[in-house]
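Work Package 4 report. The design task specified in the project plan requires that, given a folded chain encoded as structure tokens, an amino acid be chosen for each position. We show below one input record used in the internal validation round.
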């Protein structure tokens, strides 16, 4: 076995057979798994297959997944069980806005789930490519779909806790789909004796940082994340993390943002939307809509018929300018190279488990932001969390800088959102009451005519030039840099740089993975 085959950044090669499926290419990779395009030889259809592969814990030797160190065995197993349980839970639902799981099984010392292969892009990709903010009717269609999917989960007593723009998939035609529940991600954070959960900090409400009496997680936590997703797309930058807002709330109020979008783009957003976003983004869980029904009522959300024909690009109108190549086209082409695509960065901070650890989800009983510069990334997040919960810092993947970006986009390019690993207890879901959406009046807003603008920025390959560890991980610190560098060096654009070659050499010398 050659050394390079040990690294999980390598997807399984095309042609690999997994049960009745044959892998055709890599669609995406997160910190916890890889997603492949595959052909189902039994039912003669194309599918997507997600592989459980937590990058921090496991390597690949041949096709099999192996732990880097035996000490992680329990953590890996917990994540695996959660991955399987999430698949089984999702398989019970049949809703067009919730990812459908076709099959789940164990193989190669890990687990796989097969899903329909959706054609489209994530909301994160779509928002980054928009020429103008999405008009309100468009947002309402998005919200309607996601609320429907979330409501199903809430009715089953499951709070999602991981809603973010990269978990919402915009099909070329059809309703937006909620992709996953991030169960493995959350289970991996429940290691004893320190309970950690890996958060996407820009979208996670404050109660997800550390569950405490009076600040429990519940449907209101998903309301925060959903409001943050909409706010982030309008703002073209993710909202300030709740952990930072607690100390100094620099989140620009949605009303101000709406005003600016009106004057800049001529777009009108109704008071109902603005008020719902304001309430949904309240730091204090008590001041947020307590469930989706309350959020829907504030929004004055009305059922949207015909979502099966929703063409999100067409409905953006002049706000969308088709890039040369859509992700779905990319999905359809079998890749010739098997490298891990760009990962969303993560920052790991372990916080001691709080004294109070609720066993179940309970029943419900600003100033102007400095746009583009407020993102505190690892350092500030670590500081804030340290103040909040007397943290202990562990290995922390940081936030490598984005690839070179093509000439100035018509809108400010989206900031990369970041995940942070923080303490959180392991809340067990409790039954939630059904929350029917009240039939309210949808306030129509005419999509304005957009002035001609140049096509949106497209990520271009970074020219190969030698960067230092500090340049690759500018926002990392002494503690977080090693993991940041490790992650960055798994990306094709950095792999050949001297600092990565040296880093990889040292890692191989110092760290031989378990070949169990
Ligand atoms: N069923 C699908 N059809 C098409 N593409 C998909 C499908 N599932 C996932 N993808 C693609 O793969 C990418 C990674 O998927 P997903 O977010 O589920 O992975 P993950 O490892 O769970 O990531 P996360 O870090 O969010 O937990 C998605 O962003 C999407 O582009």
């Amino acid at each position: 076995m050659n050394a390079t085959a040990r690294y999980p950044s390598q997807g399984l090669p095309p042609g690999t057979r997994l049960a009745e499926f044959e892998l055709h290419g890599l669609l995406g990779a997160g910190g916890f798994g890889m997603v492949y395009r595959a052909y189902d030889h039994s039912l003669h259809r194309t599918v997507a297959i997600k592989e459980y592969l937590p990058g921090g814990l496991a390597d690949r030797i041949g096709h099999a997944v192996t732990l880097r160190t035996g000490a992680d065995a329990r953590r890996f197993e917990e994540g695996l069980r959660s991955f399987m349980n999430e698949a089984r839970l999702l398989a019970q639902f049949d809703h067009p806005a919730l990812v459908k799981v076709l099959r789940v099984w164990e193989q190669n010392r890990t687990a796989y789930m097969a899903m329909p292969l959706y054609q489209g892009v994530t909301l994160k990709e779509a928002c980054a490519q928009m020429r103008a903010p999405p008009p309100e009717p468009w947002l309402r269609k998005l919200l309607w779909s996601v609320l429907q999917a979330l409501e199903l989960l809430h009715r089953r007593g499951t709070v999602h806790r991981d809603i973010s723009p990269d978990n919402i998939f915009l099909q070329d035609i059809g309703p937006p789909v909620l992709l996953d529940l991030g169960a493995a991600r959350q289970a991996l954070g429940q290691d004893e004796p320190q309970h950690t959960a890996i958060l996407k900090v820009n979208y996670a409400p404050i109660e997800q940082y550390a569950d405490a009496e009076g600040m429990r997680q519940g449907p209101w936590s998903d309301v925060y994340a959903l409001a943050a997703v909409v706010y982030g797309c309008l703002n073209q930058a993710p909202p300030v993390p709740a952990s930072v807002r607690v100390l100094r709330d620099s989140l620009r109020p949605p009303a101000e943002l709406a005003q600016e979008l009106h004057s800049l783009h001529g777009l009108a957003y109704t008071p109902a939307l603005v008020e719902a976003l304001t309430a949904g983004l309240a730091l204090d869980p008590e001041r947020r809509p307590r469930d989706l029904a309350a959020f829907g009522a504030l929004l004055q959300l009305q059922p949207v018929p015909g979502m099966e024909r929703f063409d999100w690009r067409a409905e953006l109108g002049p706000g969308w300018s088709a890039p040369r190549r859509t992700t779905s086209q990319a999905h359809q082409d079998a890749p010739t190279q098997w490298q891990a695509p760009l990962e969303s960065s993560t920052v790991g901070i372990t916080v001691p488990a709080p004294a109070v650890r609720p066993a179940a989800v309970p029943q419900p009983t600003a100033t102007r932001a400095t746009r583009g510069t407020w993102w505190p990334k690892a350092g500030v997040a670590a500081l804030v969390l340290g103040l909040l919960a007397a943290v202990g810092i562990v290995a922390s993947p940081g936030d490598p800088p984005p690839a070179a970006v093509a000439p100035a986009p018509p809108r400010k390019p989206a900031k990369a959102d970041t995940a942070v690993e923080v303490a959180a207890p392991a809340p067990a879901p409790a039954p939630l009451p059904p929350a029917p959406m009240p039939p309210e009046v949808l306030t129509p807003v005419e999509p304005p005519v957009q002035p001609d603008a140049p096509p949106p920025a497209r990520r271009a390959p970074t020219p190969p030039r030698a960067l230092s560890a500090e340049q690759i991980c500018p926002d990392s610190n002494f503690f977080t840099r090693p993991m940041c560098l490790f992650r960055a060096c798994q990306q094709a654009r950095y792999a050949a740089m001297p600092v990565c070659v040296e880093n990889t050499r040292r890692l191989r010398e110092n760290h031989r993975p378990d070949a169990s």
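The longest helix spans residues 136-155. Validation will be extended to a larger panel in the next phase.
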